[in-house]
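Title: Prediction job returns without error message
Component: structure pipeline
Severity: low
Priority: P3
Assignee: unassigned

Description:
Job completed but the reporter wants confirmation the result is attached to the right record. Sequence as submitted:
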Amino acid sequence: MLFGEHSVVYGNPCIATSINKRLDVYLNDKNENGKELECTTIDALGINAKFPSNFEQHKFLNLTIAKFFEKYGQKNFEITTKPILKGLGSSSAVATIFYFLE
């Protein structure tokens, strides 16, 4: 969707089109016991952020990580989207990969 993807929730139209780009999502089990979730930001700096399992500053993030480990086990997973681009639905693609794990 080019724009308006949030307005459809309220019954308004949006403009959608296809583009000549592809987004691949990879989920790798690092096969280690761990309680750390590592995320790479989308920006050009490629900064990595690590959140330990006892991360208490943001309760929502802590709860999300706890639910993730409860459902998939306390392992290290590496989730990669290639290419790292903005606006191609990478959040939806990552959510979809977890759906198909069921």
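Comment from assignee: result matches the submitted record. The beta strands are 24-33, 36-40, 48-52, 75-82.
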